[in-house]
Task: inverse folding
């Protein structure tokens, strides 16, 4: 892969760039909708492209268990198998293993876990997750890491951070020359652990650096502090990725701190459960106040949902549990995130990022409206 920085903001660390990958190009800063099982829930690849999605993420843990690496490999690649034909980043699944499987045990040389589908036992090593991701031709693969919940004791965070570095070293060793592999910086909320991890991972050398284990319940201020700290240590020519950062206000803040990639389940999960992101903040469509509201979901949005349907109708779909409701809200939410990133890039390009940032903060309500 190649990463080209096209413009840097004068007033902050924000920058726009382009990542050139086997299945296409990605303009950064970019938001990657999550397609855990090889599908961005309820959306067809045609719709994703219509919205302007340039890259999605998928999850190795889920794909390995079902349909299995061999099936995807025979399907050509993950991108071809799911008929997206654009870049796909795969996460190795440390986070999912930790959150889904109560029967996980972290060994010296990998993670042993029981399948959440049939209870069978499996073992992920730093080496085999790279091999699997190479087999399914992910555009970007992630190293196996240990992601702990928040809050976590210092010593436990230290062990996880150090093990993640050790595994990253093994992953780098086994990967083929042309495979794009990102490492993950762990260390919870402890700056000294984050510093040690970032420096050691820089010594090993990766195509991109992800900051993991944040936005798990700590205050946004603390998350920003850690992102700023790590981003400052990562040379600017490297791709910086903050994992799991998904509220628009958090994305904007992390862009300001020099972040290039984001992923989060928020737009899709919230879309399915009836919460829409709008230019003024989030709304719950089922609320009674929308019963006779014939205005669009977001008056400032020109997506298919907002151009054609009223809040009253969308509310009706959710109340009647019709499948079109989650589809239309997911469509709008992804559109909202993709347009937000486009506007951010445009603002940086025109040297108006500071202005955009201030306007957004004035207009957008962090709380439900
Ligand atoms: Zn819309």
Result:
């Amino acid at each position: 892969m190649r990463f080209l920085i096209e413009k840097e903001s004068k007033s902050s660390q924000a920058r726009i760039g382009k990542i050139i990958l086997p299945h296409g190009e990605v303009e950064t800063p970019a938001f990657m909708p999550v397609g855990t099982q090889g599908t961005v829930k309820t959306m067809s690849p045609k719709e994703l492209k219509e919205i302007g999605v340039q890259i999605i993420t998928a999850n190795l843990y889920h794909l390995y268990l079902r349909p299995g690496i061999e099936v995807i490999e025979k399907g050509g690649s993950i991108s071809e198998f799911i008929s997206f034909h654009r870049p796909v980043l795969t996460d190795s699944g440390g986070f999912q293993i930790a959150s889904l499987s109560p029967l996980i045990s972290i060994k010296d040389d990998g993670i042993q876990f029981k399948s959440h589908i049939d209870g069978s036992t499996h073992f992920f090593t730093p080496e085999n997750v790279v091999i699997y991701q190479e087999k399914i031709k992910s555009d970007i693969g992630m190293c196996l890491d240990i992601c702990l919940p928040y809050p976590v004791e210092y010593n436990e965070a230290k062990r996880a951070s150090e093990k993640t570095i050790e595994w990253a070293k093994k992953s780098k060793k086994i990967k083929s020359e042309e495979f794009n592999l990102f490492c993950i910086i762990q260390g919870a909320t402890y700056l000294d652990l984050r510093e040690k991890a970032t420096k050691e991972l820089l010594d090993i050398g990766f195509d991109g650096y992800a900051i993991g284990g944040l936005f798990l319940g700590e205050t946004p201020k603390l998350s920003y502090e850690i992102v700023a700290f790590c981003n400052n240590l990562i040379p600017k020519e490297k791709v910086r990725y903050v994992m799991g950062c998904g509220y628009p206000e958090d994305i904007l803040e992390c862009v300001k701190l020099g972040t290039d990639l984001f992923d989060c389940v928020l737009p899709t999960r919230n879309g399915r459960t009836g919460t829409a992101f709008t230019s003024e903040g989030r709304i719950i469509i089922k609320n009674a106040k929308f019963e006779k509201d014939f205005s669009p979901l977001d008056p400032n949005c020109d997506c298919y949902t907002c151009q054609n349907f009223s809040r009253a109708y969308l509310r009706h779909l959710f109340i009647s549990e019709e499948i079109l409701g989650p589809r239309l809200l997911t469509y709008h939410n992804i559109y909202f995130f993709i347009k937000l990133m486009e506007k951010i890039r445009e603002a940086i390009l025109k040297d108006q990022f500071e202005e955009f940032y201030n306007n957004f903060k004035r207009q957008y309500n962090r709380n439900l409206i």
Observations:
- Residues 202 and 234 are 7 Å apart (CA to CA).
